[in-house]
Amino acid sequence: MKSLPPALACFPVGKALLGLSGGRDSVVLLHLMLAAGRRDLVLCHLNHRLRGEESDEDERFVSALAEKHRLPCEIARVDVKALAERKKLSIETAAREARHAFFRRMARKHGTNQVLLAHHAEDQAETILGNVLRGCGLDGLAAMRLITEMGDELCLLRPLLRVRRSEIDAFVQSQGLAFREDSSNASAEHRRNRLRHEALPLLSEIAGRDVVPILNRLGAIAERDEVFLQDEAEDWFDACVVGDSLTQLDTLHELDTAILSRVIGYWLREHLKLPGIGFSEIDSVRWLLTPGDISKVNLPGGCFARRKAGKLWVQMPSTAE
C-alpha cells in the first residue's frame, strides 16, 4: 500500500478532523493523507485516562507528531471509567460517546463536520462478529460504513475500511514509522480482543480459509440491502406521520414486516428520540396494528404506545394515567 485506497475518491474534500490515537493505524492514515497532499487537517486526540502514564505518553506523542508536521492539534482529556460508571455503560461504549462528543465540539470550533478515522478490514470483521453475538439485524451486520452521516453534526470517513492489517503493517515497515502500542490490545479482558486473537483465527481454521474478507463481504451486502429497506421505510414514515402520531394504520398493517418494523423503529428512535428501543419493543408496537383487543403496550422509561381512533401515539410518563 503506497497511497490512499481508491475508496477515498468518493469522499468529500476540504478541511477535516483526523482522529489520531497515536497507534499504528491512525499514524498510517495521517501519513497517507499527507502523501496525498492533504494538509487541511486538524489532528484530534482524546486522552481516555484509562492507562495512566501510558495514556499521557500517547498524548505527548501525538502533540509532537502534530508539531513535526506543522498541523493544528486539539487534545482533550476525559475520565472514561468514571463516565461509564456514572452512565452505567461499558467502557467501550462510554469511550465512543466521549470521542463523538469531542469530535462534535471540534467540528463546531473548526467549521467542518468531516472526521477521518482509521478503522480497517479486521476492525470491520470484529465489529460484525461482535454484533452477531448481540443478536443484531441487517444494520448490525452492515457494521461500519466507509461514510457514516450522523445528522448535520458529523460525517465519519473511513478510508482504510477495505484495507487489511497486513497492508498497514507493511506500510509501517517500509516507511519506518514510529507509533504507540496500546498495551490493552493484548488483554483478554476485552471482548473485542478475544474476537481478534481467538475467535477470528479459530473461525478461519474451521472454515479452512481467511474469514475476514468473507465477513467484510457479508457487511457490504447487508449495507446495500439495509439502505434500500431503510429508504423505503422512511418514505412510508413521511407519508404516514402526522405530528408525533402514526396514521393510516390499515395501510401500514399491510406492509411487509421488514418495512413495517423499520417504520416503527424510525418513529420511536429517530422521531420521538425514545431510549432503549430494541427488537422486542418494536415487535410489541407492531402488534398494535393488528385488529384485536390490544390497544396499549409498555415502553422503556414509563412510556406507553397507544392506539386509538386510527392512529398510534406515545404517552409519556408525565401524562400517564
Please provide a written account of the structure:
By secondary structure, the protein is of the alpha/beta class. The chain contains 12 helices and 11 strands. It has helices at residues 24-35, 53-69, 80-87, 91-110, 121-133, 138-142, 165-175, 191-207, 212-240, 249-253, 257-271, 279-286, and strands at residues 16-19, 41-47, 73-77, 114-116, 147-150, 154-157, 241-242, 245-246, 296-299, 303-308, 311-315.
Report the radius of gyration as a whole number of Å: 22 Å
Structural class by SSE content = alpha/beta
Strand order of the largest sheet: 3-2-1-4-6-5
Q: At the fourth CATH level, what is the homologous superfamily of the largest domain?
A: HUPs
CATH architecture assignment of the largest domain:
3-Layer(aba) Sandwich
**Helix proportion:** 40-55%
Fill in the CATH topology of the largest domain.
Rossmann fold
Distance between the termini: 63 Å
Structurally, how many domains make up the residues?
2
- DSSP strand content: 5-15%
By DSSP, the count of extended strands is: 11
SS summary, helix count = 12
**Averaged pLDDT, please?**
91
Q: Can you tell me the overall shape?
A: globular
The ordered string of helix (H) and strand (E) elements is EHEHEHHEHHEEHHHEEHHHEEE
Low-confidence stretches: none
Mind summarizing the main beta sheet? 6 strands, mixed
Indicate the CATH class of the largest domain.
Alpha Beta
